[in-house]
Each structure stands twice: as structure tokens, then as C-alpha cells.
User: Fold these one by one.
Assistant:
Number 1:
Amino acid sequence: MNDIRIIDENFYQEIMAKSKLELPFSDFEDNVMSKIERNVSNKPIIYVKLSWIFFVVGSMCGIVVSLILPRLHGTFLGLLPNKLTMVFQIAFTLIFFFQIDILINLIRKYKLAAIKKT
């Protein structure tokens, strides 16, 4: 039984010794990490701007739909136009304020990250 454990330990030690990687240069890891950091640091600005653009576009579409809904004739999904308009406006308002909250938190997070870098 002890022989099997010794063989297993030797086997695992050999495997672990073979898994050790040799880096091509002494500063290879530092160079790679600095490139990653530069690429990642530029992304939040783009994401914040895109978030605001899509928020404004979505809000405009929601406003247009809420203006068109009362002009419908007949029922849609079994709801009269005035009830459908009310349901849509409530849902739109909730989503609008939740998205405003998320965007404000995103801006705060971005500003905190920018302050920590300096």
C-alpha cells in the first residue's frame, strides 16, 4: 500500500515538474499585463457613451410608441387602446427609471475607477 502511494507521489511530482512554463523573456509577463491594462482602460469610456446613446434611442422609440398607441382602432392582445396605452406607459416609466439608475451608477463607477488610477 505504501509503495503505491510513493509511486503516485513520484508520478505527480514528475507531472508537476513538466508543467512548469518557461517565459521567453524576463519581463514578458509585465509587458503582457501592461498591454491588457491599456486595452481594458479604454473600454469603459466607449461603454458609457454607447449606453447613453442606446438609452436615448430606446427612450425616443418608447415615446413614439406611447403616442401611437392611443390612435389604434380595435383591440390588441385583447386590450382596448386606452388600457394598452396605460399598461405600456407604466412599463415604459419603470424601465426608464431603472435604466437611469443603472446609467448613473455606471458613471459613478467609471469616475471612481478614473480617480483611483491617478
Number 2:
Amino acid sequence: MTDQLEDLFAGFRADAISQVRAPGVEAARRTVHRRRTSKAVGGAAFVAVVAAGGIGSHLLGPLPFTQPGEPDPATLAKRQSRAASAVGLGAGDRAQTPRSMQGIAAAGVIATGLLVAGTYTLRLACAGPGRLAVLFRIRETLLPETAAPDRGVTGLPDGTDRVARSSTQDCATREAAVRTFTLPGDAPVEAELRPDDDAVARAGYAFTLTLHDADRERLTQQVRGRMQPDSTTLYETSGPVRKNTIDVHGAGGMLNPGRYRLRYLCGGVGRVRVAVGVHHADTVVTSTQTVTCGPSAPAATFPFEIRPGDSFSASTEPDADALGQSAHAELLERV
């Protein structure tokens, strides 16, 4: 898998790596300074984790101790911003852009997560001195929170190369490196950042990983084919999973009195929290289920009754794995 796991990366939740703790940028500064000023340090290892939320102020300051010639917080912020801009991210964009990350270079595993089978585009950039390598690999075992069948993981075909791959970027380059890779099956992956001594705590970096539109459409067609409407269907929709709230059509958002059911199916990976609400006067009765996404995951069914004057709503909230890597189909049926 050449550059395939060059990006396995992406915005995978770094909080899944709870066994590693981030010493922070200041610890990185002290380590690099010792390396530069004392040959006795030898092969001492420095490992740090950039948390999934590792964007913004807590990565950049305060820095009470700055070595001569080291960048100040404002310079670090500019370098991170420049790297983020090169891959199309703004400050704080990670929450809106799944499988993306930005921060200040520090050695260590920066993210783990689940990828659905398909072709991805990786955009990687760094800004500042030195060079920065990103090592990608498929984990041999699933993380407990992503284990099949709970997360709909299909797994990789026998014989898939799981050996780590790396991509190196010169931080003086202003444009992002753009690569594609194809993952033949759903898999948990991890990314490790390996900056050289010049880049550690001095260079900003950013990357995004995006599933190709053709694969998103494939997922949509798959779930749509499993949820065929019939004469009882009043409403249907399908497409990429996203955080959303809908009010079902009808006069003033109302449904005629009667019994109904909403069926929700998700294909891809991850989970989606689905809530169905029946609104009557000042009260709301809500039914909530967490739906697993996958090629054989069953549809969730929400039966409900509408009385005169009631209205109906449904909301979806995907987790980090499902966002951008899953598709849904919904049917509202009269029972």
C-alpha cells in the first residue's frame, strides 16, 4: 500500500490514545535545546501526542521560557496558520472538517481512527524550519471502541500490506503535498509525526484527509438500494451523513393523525445518534437510538403516533468516524 497510509489520517480522534500523554510544546523546546547543546543526550527519545483538539491557544502558549533563536508564540501561531491555509483549513476548523489536524510539530502518534474502504486525498503542509515526516500504518487490532461489529467494520482483505509508510515534507515549501491512496477495506489506522530537530517545536503543520466523492456516492447508492419505498412511504431522503434536524412535511409542519414509523439506515463506518420527537402543545416525546453504520447493519425503526395538533421532527448527530465516511437513507411510513 504505497502512500496509502500516508494519510490514514485524518482527523481521527487523538483522544482515543489515552495511554500517551502530551508533554506540550515547552517540553519539546527543552528537549530540542538539550539535543542541540549536549552531544551526551545521544539517542534519547522524545514522544509527544497532539490531542485531537490540539488547535489553538493551549498549543501556542504561554511559553514562559524561550531559548535564544527560538520562535515566540506569535511566530508559531503564524506558522501553524500558514500550514493550515495551505491545506484549506482555518483556525478552529477541525470541528467542522473530519479527519483533519493542525498544530506545532512534536514527535509521536498524533491520531488514530477508523477509515471506510475507498480512495482518499491527503493534503499535508508544514511551515517553518526543517523537515517533517508522517508515518501511517494500519493497526493490527481494532481499538476497543471501534471493534466490529459494534462499528460496522468490514476489515481488510487477506494479504493487505500493513507495513508503515511515510511521507516527508520540506517545511520551506509553501504549497501542500497532495497524494491519493486507496484502502481496500475498512480499517483502524494511526498516524505518527516525525519532525527533525529543526522542526520540533518550531514548525507548524496541518493535514486533511477526504474520501472521494465517488465513494460517498457509492455508499449512498448502497443504503438507498436497501431501503426501497413503497405505497406506505410518505417521505424519503438519502445522502451523506451529517448533523441535521428536519421537520417532516405537512400543513404547518404537521402530520395527519395516525400511526407512523421512521426507518433509518446507515452505511459506511461509525455511529449516528438519531432522535425522533413528537411535539404536542408544550411537551415533546423523544425516542433516541444510536445507529451503527455498516454494509449489513440493520435499519433502526422508530414507531410513533400523531394526535390532532401534533408535529414531528427528527435529528441526526454522527460521531467522528461516521462524519464524511458514511451515508444514510430514511423512510417515513404510514402504518
